[in-house]
Backbone:
């Protein structure tokens, strides 16, 4: 089991696959993340250093969730669908089967 801080926010990126959102949340919870800390990622609001990103991978037909930890957040001008996440640095931690 990977060491995660269940008190931190988890930003879930579904890449338009809302049909897989509940399945992704269930997979994250079964891997130690707190259900009440999982939120849908939005382009106009980013996490803070130490929070997690959970990304369905690889679009358009994901079969796993890539877990990343936010290591740095820099102010940027929002850009397209990426928005403010453009200024977020992260490190890959592990993957979770979807």
Residues:
């Amino acid at each position: 089991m990977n060491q995660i801080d269940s008190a931190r926010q988890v930003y879930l990126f579904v890449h338009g696959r809302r049909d897989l959102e509940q399945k992704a949340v269930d997979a994250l919870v079964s891997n130690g993340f707190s259900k009440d800390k999982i939120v849908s990622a939005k382009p106009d609001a980013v996490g803070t250093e130490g929070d997690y990103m959970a990304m369905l991978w690889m679009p358009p037909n994901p079969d796993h969730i890539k877990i990343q930890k936010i290591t740095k957040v820099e102010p940027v001008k929002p850009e397209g669908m990426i928005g403010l996440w453009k200024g977020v640095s992260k490190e890959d931690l592990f993957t979770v089967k979807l």
User: Anything to note?
Assistant: The mean pLDDT is 95. Residues 21-30 form the longest helix (10 residues).
